[in-house]
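Revision sheet: structure tokens.
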Amino acid sequence: MEKSVCQEETYNALYHEHFQSVRNYVYYKCGDMDQAQDIAQESFIRLWQKCAEVIFEKVIGFVHTVANRLFLDKVRSDKVSLKFEKNQMPQQNTEDPFYQLRTKEFQSQIEQAISELPEGQREVFLLNRVDKHTYKEIATMLGVSQTAIEKRMTKALIKLKDKIEEFKSYNI
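Predicted:
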């Protein structure tokens, strides 16, 4: 028997397995965790509403497409810049304050460089390097070819490499 998205157990399992990925996907686009949470939840509500129409094997693509469309509806004409939540790096008591300051400045520069990437490159970079999705998975999420994902990643890496060259003076 083929799995049905309309079965509550199946739906709940899909939700628990993929919610974080969808939320992160939207977060990488908008930089607002609350907005990303809301859009991800709305995407899964729409999945439940259309469960009879969605083929089980296409669920992940469906939810990401819905999330993307909801995001675009909310920010149709706005330029989006990503602002990361500040994660405290583990600090050792033996580190000198100058080292901590340089580390914090370097981290800030890296975050700024990532946020300045064009949206498509930024989301591919973060989905691959932070969420550990493969190019094939990202292509499915975004509804584009794997080659397009590879090109976006290549361009993102080139831009980040150029930015990092500017940071060499930090000597961390």
